[in-house]
Amino acid sequence: MRLGFSGQFLVIVLGKVFTIGVGLLSLRMVTEVLNPEQYGVLSLLVAVQTFFGLLFLSPVGQHISLNAHRWADEGVLKHYLSVFGFYVVAVALLGSVVGCFAIGLSQFGVVYASSGLAIFLAILGATLNGTYVWLLNLLHHASISTLFLVATAGAALGMSVTLATGEGAAFWWLIGQALAMLGIALVARGVLNKKVANVSAHAQHVSYPSKELLAFCLPLAATVAVIWVQTSGYRFLVGREWGAAQLGLVALGLQLAVQMGSVVESLAIQAVYPAFYRRCKLISDERSISCAFSDMLNVLAPIYIIVAGLVVATSASLTKVLVSVNYPGASQFLALGAGIELMRVLTSLLSSAAHGLRDTRILLLPACCGSGVAVISVAAAAAANVGIIWALYGLLLGAVTTLVLTALSVAQRVSIAIDAARWLAAVAVALLLISVAAAISSHSTYFAALANLALFGLCATAAALLIMWRNDAAARLLAA
Hints:
Layout lengths: L4 H29 L2 H39 L2 H29 L6 H27 L3 H23 L5 H26 L14 H33 L1 H28 L1 H7 L6 H28 L1 H8 L7 H28 L6 H20 L5 H25 L6 H20 L6 H23 L3 H8 L1
Helix pairs in contact: 1-5, 1-8, 2-3, 2-4, 2-6, 2-7, 2-8, 3-4, 4-5, 4-6, 5-6, 7-8, 7-13, 8-10, 8-12, 10-12, 10-15, 10-16, 10-17, 11-12, 11-16, 12-14, 13-14, 15-16
């Protein structure tokens, strides 16, 4: 039975609440099961996984998203997804081999074969799960997609806790995540095959549009690989210079910031991005792309700014509630991580304009410059033998560089209409939250921290709703 709009909306909201809750619970559980050193090892395993995902798989996934509606109408989507599946397996095999050597060179005493298996399954499971579940949402089956997201979140947490409890090894945690994602992906694939049109008679003789694919994906792959250096690659240098335990604290603080940012970003991906892609179907109509991009920017950017301010303001309370006592001092890394995460999500938002134009070359130079600044800054901090907090300042400087240069590059191709009043209001709300939090005393008990989170969360939500009230850009996006 097909759900109406209100029913689908309710399923999506409840599903998001559940997945957000499971994601936050996962942070608590992983810090209970793994000590800081093992969490540092886990961050290296995930860094290898994300490298191969970003370099070889994410650009192809973006290309599939942009063409999914057309391919589904033509009856060739299943055929192209089958080809993509074999490609994912090959990339996962390559990643597992390279990962064994990369982790081994980091000298953390990881069991190489187990690490390779974890990386292989993680690349395979995360890519296939993300592809099939996302396509269901993109092809107007949002409620079904949400149910698969819920199933993935719950199964991943259950599998990881079951496998990692006892030995407390990082690779068991990642294997649990991967097996759950892979299992749900296979089910989602079956549902997707029933929902899209049958393979057309000529589909088996249709070759993948390799020229179009390479023109779109090569610049994007180079860009995301360079971005990986400042978002994940730094972990190898930090781990070698400051040790796995310190890496674990840094990685946890940054991951918690990412988790908070992804709460809003995941809602945007499910609710706003499909409308943007639908409005970008006419490649030659750059005016429509500019209007769609400006609308998305003015809807999402103010919300991202408020969320970043909320995370900084409640960093001590968040770590009190969500992190084990085995990770002292993580709150200072979370506060800086919120700034880095804000730069990342804003850069990602700006990058969507290049995706809509099918011209990802404009993203490469900003990414190279930002990553170069980040690497030089972290290396300088290591050479000066200063505290690890200075490495995070270097990452923040690199993220700011990437954002500024990306904005300048995009502005040369797309006419951007900024709703300055809403942006300034969001900045004012963020600064007010941080100022109030700094003025009041810290909350040492668990329940006091919960009350603090509830109070600041309600204030931030009310402010965001007021800023979005009577927003014409949001109305145009929802009507797309």
